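Sequence, please.
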């Protein structure tokens, strides 16, 4: 029996894929659990249209991420923090601090997208921002003492 998967099914396929399975597996497992529906001509046409929509959306997101990466690459984020005389910080500078500075500049970037180990010393560091798939931007993070 040909069915269209409504969700990713481990060992069978991914959402929207048309697969051939045994009749009993489809009738007794996939269809009752809402994991698949019978593959009629209309259902296959709808699934194909949805795949095209998803592909167009992914291409648009990828293009937006590439533009954002180009805008972010090479920027320097300056963060002022309290530090002792030896240059050791009272606390740490984290990706959350970098995300806050970027938000002030008008960029909406989640702290989980920023790869920066906690900084405990004054100085200059590099942060990587994961935007989409393989698209990544690199920022310079300068930690300076408070004035």
């Amino acid at each position: 029996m040909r069915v269209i998967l409504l969700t990713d099914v481990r060992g069978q396929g991914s959402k929207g894929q048309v697969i051939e399975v045994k009749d009993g597996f489809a009738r007794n497992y996939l269809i009752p659990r809402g994991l698949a529906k019978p593959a009629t001509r209309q259902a296959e046409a709808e699934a194909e249209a949805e795949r095209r929509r998803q592909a167009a959306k992914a291409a648009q997101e990828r293009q937006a991420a590439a533009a954002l990466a180009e805008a972010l690459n090479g920027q320097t984020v300056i963060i002022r923090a309290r530090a002792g005389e030896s240059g050791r910080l009272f606390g740490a500078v984290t990706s959350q601090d970098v995300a806050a500075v970027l938000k002030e500049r008008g960029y909406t970037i989640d702290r989980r997208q920023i790869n920066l180990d906690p900084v405990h010393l004054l100085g200059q560091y590099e942060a990587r921002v994961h935007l989409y798939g393989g698209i990544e931007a690199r920022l310079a993070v300068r930690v300076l003492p408070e004035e």
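The longest strand covers residues 135-145.
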